[in-house]
Write a structure and sequence with these properties.
heterodimer; A: about 450 residues; alpha/beta; 8-stranded mixed beta sheet; 6-stranded parallel beta sheet; disordered N terminus; B: about 450 residues; 15 helices; 16 strands; about 20% strand; globular
Chain lengths: ~450, ~450
């Protein structure tokens, strides 16, 4: 199958058919002259997971890994050696700048905490790499604008890790329920997360261990007194390094809804919430929050609580799209179409697992099995976009809109729940100097906040 | 049982036991020297329904009925003669002012459309009557302040028809789930209505029928071209009410405020509009979201008059979330859902019907059988409050807070979703002259808007 035909075939095929063709597609990438030269910056939980998904669908040579935690870095290196074709342990770096300067990279995956995303993504783009960047793309809005500016200026493809767009059962549901017009006029959306996922500990301050460069880990963000390794969960419980549950979870669901319904920027955003229940720990992110993302004749209402019951036990982290003829619920695990007409049959969509095709998924520590097929598809879409010079499905601008909307919700909450209208042309909140000032966080001494016009 | 002992007994008894004791209680009222002298202003659907509930629990002589529709009035007169002990058709009035001055009723029930509530309630209070006033108490916020001022000035008891506060299964759920602290810290509530209840017709303008004094019906409100949408149908127009929020949210917000002992919201924000049902003459929103912010607790309202409910068991309901569980409630049922495995078993509360005790409930046209026990309770609470000189359970201040909060939500929606902070001391929206101006609707020529300091 030549590449032109393959693309046409993909265009016309359903999600499952697309999936079935991955073997073939993967072969295409593997047929390249040499393996893809890949580096991973941030060798923790999702960084490694993303890298292993890429290795599953393309011929990859992991040139280098980077992490300020020597132990984690070393373990990641050993693990990569067992997973990549060459069997080699990649070069290990503490500082991503050194990595970018010394290695000639085509592809960089970024799995660092959110506060490092912007600088690392921009530097990788400048170094000539295409970037797979985890969500949310930034901790403030102007960082996001700067990453877009860099992606466009250096003409590289940036795929953002909002892989619900590549989730087989959600692609199916989109095609069968949304694109077919089955819901009628769509005029309301609910999105939510009720996982008890907020880290609530109160650990004592302790000396930084030798193997961890905490100052470098902190980078441009405020330096908190060290109270244990921040990996995976702990950093997410502090607003200094992310945007709380809204930045972590809402970004996925808002992004999915925007993709399904072809929505751009919200016209305005309002949010309220705070720490209402879980007050005993050090965490400073909201445990309770509601946000309204307004579109013309359609409001997207976000709610999260990290305590208590979910609204719907079947859909604890989910979207629900309401039309005048029915409703589509979706999550990473399933989707359900509920028609309004009682004589019409509901349609259930099951999550696709690929346990037989990728048995190594089953033994990989910390893997999200349900998300593995989605991430593989997402990686392939990124490579295809590079190959064919088109924008990937989760192009940086889309990731930026979804991220910035979540950040604006947090700014609204901080400002007493007032309504914010962001203008991406002027990069200001209209008529609101106080909110505009918050579009850029202060960087720590020695770090310079990236500017869209001078990337 | 003497009244003191009865009260003590009631204080200690559960809701179901209270209910079992109603027969006795009713007898007390019936033991008065003479029957209660009662008038009903507005003899439509709920006006008659309220009156028949009162007749069921007290010895009543209906001394006057008032309506601007002579046909509806005559039919109500006949119906009342079949239901009251004396068997008489009460004197019939077109003008409530004439009724009040000629009959001097001790008890006045007001069941008119919302736009007449304030003037009629205030006039009834001035004439010396205790008032049972349907919800929402007013169409604008200052009307509500004026009714409250009049009730206090003339020292009369005003019970509002927010009878969820007297609904046996909700009273029981409150006692067993909320008051016992079973939910732990309560930090979120959802309130909703997904009934397809909005008028979707678009009839032509027609001549006003002879039996209707349409000018008097419109009273202080704008007189819209007559289309035959009047009794019950007036809820389609903002001119005469406050849409679904004023009609349905007021009940659920009031129920949550009662359950959780909440006063005024700190701030109210709302967005919505006519997104789906655009072909109708109705001008109320078909889609709306509102945030009522209390201290560490947001109450989120949503209504859609189209599409699927979020939870088909609870299409018009409240859900109160605590760290240890959730209480869902509606006029039809209530359910406690524990959080996790360590907070007990689920508890279901079915609606209490009294079809055997009050077989006439079942045959009465348009009666809400499920709400009849609640309204009877609400009436008895009103009479008891009068007898004991205490505030009734749905005192006008409570009805005012619930009503005004809903009106403020509509004002926020009108003002493009900006948050409003109402200050009941100054009777202004803080820092918002435009919103403050909306606290009073303009009255039609010939009518003077009631002022709290001049009643």
């Amino acid at each position: 199958m030549n590449s032109f035909n393959r693309r046409d075939f993909l265009k016309g095929s359903s999600a499952l058919a697309t999936l079935a063709s991955f073997g073939l597609l993967g072969m295409d990438f593997k047929d390249r002259e040499g393996p893809l030269q890949v580096a991973l910056i941030g060798a923790g939980w999702y960084g490694k997971s993303d890298l292993f998904r890429l290795i599953q669908v393309a011929d990859v040579n992991v040139v280098a890994l980077c992490d300020p935690d020597k132990n984690m870095l070393k373990a990641a290196g050993d693990m990569v050696a067992t997973r990549q074709k060459s069997g080699a342990v990649p070069k290990l770096y503490e500082d991503y700048k050194e990595l970018l300067a010394k290695e000639k990279l085509e592809y960089v995956l970024i799995g660092s905490p959110d506060h490092w995303h912007a600088l690392q993504a921009i530097d990788s783009l400048k170094a000539g790499a295409h970037v797979y960047l985890q969500k949310p793309i930034s901790v403030d809005v102007i960082e996001g604008e700067a990453i877009i500016a860099a992606a466009r200026k250096y003409n590289k493809k940036v795929q953002v890790g909002t892989q619900r767009k590549s989730t087989p059962h959600l692609i199916d549901a989109k095609e069968q329920i949304i694109d077919s017009g089955k819901l009628g006029k769509i005029s309301h959306v609910e999105i939510c997360c009720y996982y008890h996922m907020r880290a609530n500990g109160n650990p004592p301050v302790e000396p930084v261990p030798d193997f961890f460069n905490y100052d470098l880990w902190t980078g441009p963000a405020p330096l908190r007194p060290y109270d244990g390794l921040p990996h995976k969960r702990w950093w997410r419980t502090f607003i200094e390094y992310g945007n709380g549950i809204t930045g972590d979870m809402c970004v996925h669901m808002l992004d999915t809804v925007r993709w399904m319904l072809k929505l751009g920027w919200p016209t305005q955003i309002t949010s309220t919430g705070g720490i209402y229940v879980q007050k005993d720990g050090k965490s400073n992110i909201s445990d309770t929050q509601s946000a309204i993302f307004e579109y013309p004749e359609l409001n997207v209402v976000w709610q999260h609580r990290t305590w208590g019951n979910p609204e719907d036990a079947e859909y604890p982290w989910a979207f629900k799209i309401f039309g005048d003829k029915g409703m589509l619920a979706g999550s990473t695990m399933q989707a359900d179409y509920t028609p309004l007409d009682k004589d019409e049959k509901p349609i259930h969509f099951e999550c696709l697992f690929e346990r037989e095709k990728y048995p190594e998924d089953l033994t990989e520590p910390d893997i999200e099995l349900n998300a593995a097929p989605a991430t593989r598809l997402h990686m392939q879409n990124w490579l295809k976009a590079i190959e064919t010079d088109i924008l990937p499905i989760a192009d940086i601008e889309q990731g930026h809109i979804s991220t910035a909307s979540c950040i604006l919700a947090n700014i609204s909450m901080d400002l007493g729940g007032r309504t914010l209208k962001y203008d991406p042309k002027t990069m200001t909140v209209i008529g609101d100097k106080e909110a505009t000032a918050r579009l850029k966080r202060p960087y720590r001494k020695g770090f310079v906040h990236p500017e869209p016009k001078s990337v | 049982m003497n009244p003191l002992n009865r009260r003590e007994f009631l204080k200690g008894s559960t809701a179901l036991m209270s209910l079992a004791s109603f027969g006795l209680l009713g007898m007390d009222f019936k033991d008065r020297e003479a029957p209660l002298q009662v008038a009903l202003i507005g003899t439509g659907w709920y006006g008659k329904s309220d009156l028949f509930r009162l007749i069921q629990v007290a010895d009543v002589e209906v001394v006057g009925l008032c309506d601007v529709d002579s046909k509806q009035l005559a039919e109500a007169g006949k119906l009342v003669s079949t239901r009251q002990k004396s068997g008489k058709v009460p004197p019939l009035y077109e003008d409530y002012k004439e009724l009040l001055s000629k009959e001097k009723p001790e008890y006045v029930l007001v069941g008119t459309p919302d736009h007449w509530h304030a003037l009629i309630a205030i006039a009834a209070l001035k004439s010396g009557a205790h008032v049972y006033l349907q919800k929402p108490i007013s169409v604008d916020v200052i009307e509500g302040e004026a009714i409250l001022a009049a009730a206090r000035k003339y020292d009369r008891k005003v019970q509002i028809g927010t009878q969820r506060r007297s609904t046996p299964h909700l009273v029981q759920a409150k006692k067993e789930i909320i008051d016992t602290g079973k939910l732990g810290k309560i930090s979120h509530a959802e309130v909703c209505c997904y009934y397809h209840m909005r008028n979707n017709s678009n009839p032509d303008v027609i001549p006003v029928p002879d039996n209707l004094n349409y000018d008097l019906w419109a009273g202080p409100a704008p007189m819209l071209p007559y289309r035959g949408i009047l009794h019950r149908g007036w809820r389609a127009f903002m001119e005469y009410g406050n849409g679904i929020v004023g009609d349905m949210c007021v009940h659920m917000l009031d129920a949550v405020r009662w359950m959780l002992d909440l006063g005024w919201p700190i701030q109210v924000t709302s967005t919505g509009g006519i997104y789906v049902q655009k072909d109708s003459v109705a001008n109320i929103s078909d889609t709306q979201t509102a945030l009522f912010e209390f201290d560490e607790l947001n109450v989120v309202w949503q209504h859609r008059t189209w599409g699927n409910p979020v939870d088909k068991d609870y299409p018009w309901a409240f859900k109160i979330y605590g760290e240890n569980g959730m209480l869902a409630g509606s006029p039809m049922r209530a359910d406690f859902y524990p959080e996790g495995r360590n907070n007990g078993e689920p508890i279901h509360y079915p609606v209490v019907l009294e079809k055997e005790q009050f077989p006439e409930d079942v045959t009465e046209k348009d009666n809400e059988v499920h709400a009849a026990p609640a309204t009877r309770e609400q009436m008895k609470d009103w009479l008891k409050a009068i007898e004991n000189d205490t505030l009734p359970v749905a005192d006008v201040l409570e009805g005012h807070i619930s009503t005004a909060s809903c009106i403020l939500a509509n004002m926020s929606m009108e003002l493009d979703g900006r948050p409003l902070r109402y200050n009941p001391k100054t009777m202004t929206v803080e820092g918002d002259e435009e919103a403050t101006a909306l606290l009073r609707r303009p009255y039609r020529d010939g009518y003077a808007h009631p002022e709290p300091n001049l009643i």
